[in-house]
Predict the 3D structure of the following.
Amino acid sequence: MNPKTILILFSALLILLMSDGAAVALDERAAWGQLSSPNRGNKENELAGLAVVAPDDIWAVGRYNSGRPPTATGRDTLSLHWDGTSWAGVPTPNPTWSGADFFTLEDADAVSSTEVWAVGYAEDFASLKSTTLVERWNGSSWRIVPSPNPGGPNLPNTLAAVDVAAPNDVWAVGSVGFPQTSLILRWNGSRWRPVRNGCGVALNGVEVVSTTDIWAVGSGTTCHFDGTEWAIIPSPQPQGQFSELAYVLQDVSSTGPNDVWASGYRVIEYGEYFDFQSIVEHWDGTAWTLNRIVPGHRLSGIEALAANDVWAVGTDAIRGVVAHFDGNDWVLVPSPTPGNSGSLVDVEAESVDHLWAAGIGQAKTLILEAPSRFEGTVVGDTDVSGATVSWFGPETGSTETDPGGEYAIAGLTAGSYLLTATYPGCAPASAQVEVIAGQTLDQNLHPNC
């Protein structure tokens, strides 16, 4: 059993003992909030992956625009650490081969507080050459660990995801060559080695259910390791009659061998334009099924806690989105996105009742948690499409209602607020509310039209 599963089960047991037999998962109405997170330099910073060791030991990894030569768009690796009180930056090394100007960490996973793995790649934009990048935290610093590049020294070699089966059994997946095909590496306790596989396409996510049950996902592909070999397992494919061009799977998570979830998006052709819509696929132990009725344009990260408790994060093409599956439907959960721009890339469970998400907002690192310790959410109905809902209190702002007249305000600092709803030609409505950290408040506002 991998360390992430052990953490979730241990947390569930604690909740069970503390609640006299009633384990309580995170409710859809628990409010998400943003925590302050540091950035390197004054240019773009982006987080791509999370690794949870303990409630006071969490890692986020990604990249930042260093603006250094040889190009003004160079990126360097980035890591942040949560100690239970605040997030702080921790230095990470970059490869030093000539010409490399783009370094990124795409994912992370942990064995313990003194063994955390992060994977990504280094690239030369000019030649498109890239090499795999693996780093390990030893309890005091990040160090680069040598990793193979099966594509050779002059072709692309990248890693996108990592998952721990045991301290001496770690898996990383990505792509190799051009056009890209699947790359799988395995750590045996002393070195990384490439693993033969028939997965075919570039791989974006990996999930260890057990040492003989591992899934990797990519573009239109779900690939499975049974303890002996990797093989493609048939999964839903794009339907030409609906102008679907691709199903791109980004991440995979599970609660057991008969409950595996993959998130991503489908690409749809509309004449000269392409549209993107979120998808989720589910493995029930026998077959994969596709769900297209999912919030957002792309879902990059997914975390399954139970068959009726699955969380996913992504973007609606403008701002980050959080979605939840309760056993029946996927619903959009209000979440703060600073400046109404950015996306969420990864979501991980600290416990069954506490989640973290990471990505980018206004070109800066973005870290959310639920339930929030400082912020709350207000939702309600006005019966007026396009009405302006404003709030005045510890902070001020406004938003417009959706076509159904509903609104959601996430990330409000806890405190007392005056809410108003206005629309031209209508008498405004107002209400005084108390926003509570970690909770969602219902407040309808009906202008008199």
